[in-house]
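May I ask for a protein sequence together with how it folds?
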Amino acid sequence: MVKPKYHIFVCTSSRPNGQQKGFCHSKAGVEIVSRFMEEIEERELSDEVMVTNTGCFGICNKGPIVVIYPEGTWYGNVSPNDVQEIVESHIENNQKVERLEI
């Protein structure tokens, strides 16, 4: 396995039993994961960026939550429409999206 340059975690409110329900799930968490995967593929960044859905981060009032490593940048209230900006600004140009940062 190749170690990715970036690892994007997106809360989808996944539960240990595999069910997805909760705040981030109801606020398009799964769609956000899909959009990230599409953007990464379209920009040919698949060798550099990994996207993973997660369970609850515990700050539902700021969800959906996206966390990007290795920096450990946390974004809150992310919508599917924010994904393109996050990929372009943070992943490609190494500039955090300040309006979403928590």
About this structure: The first helix runs from residue 23 to 26.
